[in-house]
Amino acid sequence: MTEFVEKKYVKNNSIEKRDYQINLANQAIAENCIVVLPTGLGKTAVALHVIAEYLSKGTGGILFLAPTRVLVNQHYDFLKNNLTLDDISLITGEDAIPKRTKLWNNSIVCATPEITRNDLIRGIITPEQFTLVVFDEVHRTAGDYAYSGIAKRFENSSARLVGMTATLPSEKEKATEILTKLRISCVAERTEDSPDVKPYTHETNTEWIHVELPAELKSIQRLLKLALDERYDTLRKNGIRLAEQQSLSA
User: What does pTM read for this prediction?
Assistant: First the structure.
């Protein structure tokens, strides 16, 4: 029998109770961290647990950031469908300043990072308005991406900062850059093989079916291979060591 989350501000029978989501949420509630969870295992549900906890504290607003309007809309719909709260707003660059100024006062704001950074710079909003900031798709944090500027604005704030991603870069230097720019030192990670995740996953069987490419696609494949070979030859002539076998998907 399916158990559902019973928590203030979460609608009854809306979110399945999963131990690993609760464990990750508890860590994010306790300290600034990045939640790493494979696609399909419910990163947004983890965020919902954290959001509900901070709503219960009643000490400030909640900011939920996502890099595209599509993702912002998805998170907005998810929260509207699963929380009992009414004052949840959606803000993108398409909204004029007078409208944004009003929407920023809601309990939860779902927004794109660029408009958030710009409104922080303009002074339309301040870090003190928020007690929780969720950064979705946090692996995008590199260079001068807006997440970096937003996190810097919260440097002296007491707000909880939570990042979410399906995967961090495998290169230690890039992963460290993300943590540094967001001023986060902790990573809370689960995989499909984690003990508290396994009860909710199922084994999959993969069957490979090989098909013969039509002549037209084979011709395109040959041309792509020639173009790839030319570029590999140039790299080798410039001292770059490469494997002998090249893949068109490399």
Answer: 0.80
